[in-house]
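Hey,

Quick one before I head out. I ran the complex with magnesium ion overnight. Inputs first:
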Amino acid sequence: MSGNKTRIQAINNIMNRAQKICKPTDPLSKIWAIDVFNLSTMEDSLSKSSFKSIKKTVQTGEPLDPQTANSVAAAMKEWAIGKGAKFFSHLFYPMTNITAEKHDGFIVTNSDGRAITEFTGSLLIKGEPDGSSFPNGSLRMTSAARGYTAWDPTSPAFVMHTPNGATLMIPSVFMSWTGEALDKKIPLLRSNSAMDKAANRVLSLMGEEDIAPLSSSCGAEQEYFLIDENFANARPDLLLAGRTLFGAPSAKGQQFDDHYFAAIPERVQVFMQDFEDKLYRLGIPAKTHHNEVAPGQFEIAPYFEAANVAADHQQLMMTLLKSTAKAHGFTCLLHEKPFAGVNGSGKHVNWSIGNSTQGNLLDPGKTPHENLNFLLFCGAVVRGVHLFGPMLRAAIASSANDHRLGANEAPPAILSVYLGEQLESVFDDIKKGKLLEKAKGGVMDLGISQILNFDRDPGDRNRTSPFAFTGNRFEFRAVGSSQSVSGPIVAMNTMLADSLTWIADKLEVALKDGTDKTTAVIIVLKELVELHGNVIFGGDGYSKEWHEEAVKDRGLKNIPTTADALPAYKERSVVDLFSKTGVLSEVELASRFEVYAEQYVQSIEVEAKLVIDIATTKIYPAAIQHISGITSTSSSLKEYGVDLENSGVKTAVTEANAMMAAVKELSAAVAKDDFASIEEHMNYCAQTICNMMLNVRTHADTLEGIIADELWPLPKYHEMLFIK
Ligand code: ADP
Ligand code: MG
């Protein structure tokens, strides 16, 4: 009887673990951003003229002159060394969802053998990590494998304290020798400028004069699971795939809703305090935390920031969630669906557009003229989601997120927009021409302002919509918990740039013959709603009726899997969208398709191999041990009148045989490698392989309900979700 050694050991380890307790920590004022080389740190350490010049670069993205770069580098080095740093690293964001870093020492030696530290403007500006093993989707030939990182001065550098000391981290872009974007930051920065340019045109036509550069903002709500690391270490599926590929449901799951917003378990409180203090030191504004719906599931949301900084902070948060969890004996699961049968994890991306002169353009505002700007920007979003819904779906596609979308706990895989009752009726009136009549009658200004003077928080949130207006921003709710927020932000900024350009073109025409602004806006919006209003939906996104209506009556697409979603990147309209806006060239976009398609196929293949391995080497032997334990003593058991017919042993035999037959079938299927295209390979994974994995799991999960508990080799759902 040894099959369960690791599992029982895991439980023992947890029971004998020393409990950490919350300790009083330093006040916020003492730790806030102390490890960040931000503008206020620079102001203290740079000359007046250098500071003025770097401030301009940070705030407007203007290029930096080499002399200022040198002064910033010198100040940054002194500051970092003062904090104990011996190394620096350009930090970049390749086309995986992780952050990459390559550390270089400040050290150089001179001819008499002394060590000095060196860090010049050119070292700050450019790094050459090579990094030829990052996915590049054919953008780099191995013979020309050189890759460059370049400092992004708009995202502050910081010092990271790790067990091997302190390191100066410099947020950077990552590009190929030939200048193509190999990362997630370059498209984000480009999408922001594209949006800025188009928004500026619209605002100028609306008569705005003093228009500061526009930037998108992002506040991401991160959901995650914490389980004891002893359990994670005893499950190869959690270790390698981040989700459980086996596991019968626990008798109690989330049906009592007794975890959501409940008191946070003490051990998790200690973790959160430690984690959030780390965030504060790095200038990341952690704002809310709470228990989520599933047992063992939690959420953290920082206060929103400029999208570029928010995206870097989001990456840092995911890294710190994992490392801090480890320090507390937890494993943090960022996977979108670690456990079947309870909720998965998302990352709602709250997104808005604004600047320092016009404010938040997705805020209806109080005056009629603010209302008009708002309606144009809001309309632009509606048009974008309608035209480029499949592209938005592609931007959040991954094998992990496929388990969540459309599963009645997360938004459906159909992209629609929720506006709330009031705003929906405004767009309805525009479509019917009602507001146009009023506008031409001359009473419009007042009318529209009254209509839109609604509560910022319209209370009634639609939790079933993938893309919801929430009073002063849109919330893209279909984003997955492990994903970088860059992809979704790039998708949103770019579709918005395109829509604002369309609006500007139309406005220009409408205003030409002296039509007043209000009437011109309503004329443009009327056409927009007629063409794209179909995407507005305020009902229940989970219902069967909606799935039918959306596809049949409204022409929207239901895109259940990544295999169905990624080909959107190859559609002519999407290729044109990205190249016209200058966000991604045709080859850069094609490389993304290739990289994400390969990642999809590879993740499913890893899972399939794990299923085969775990079923064969852990579950089957446990089943056989259970069966032989009973059958070897069956004659004496029978003698005492034990009813073997109802002992489950026969079912165990049937299920064990069926499971191994399913494993055989899966093994043969995984071996297939003659695919005509990557699309065909993706479809094969989505249909054939996924179903076969599920088939093995079904038999294994039945066995879990029959086999003696002490023999079962894998930590069970109730243990992982409830033992803290
Ligand atoms: P809820 O769970 O009710 O949606 P949370 O408070 O958990 O709300 O998270 C809302 C997120 O939206 C926060 O990160 C918040 O900072 C962010 N947010 C608020 N206003 C804006 C805005 N104008 N633009 C972008 N994000 C915003
Ligand atoms: Mg929330």
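The CA atoms of residues 311 and 485 lie 6 Å apart.

Talk tomorrow,
K.
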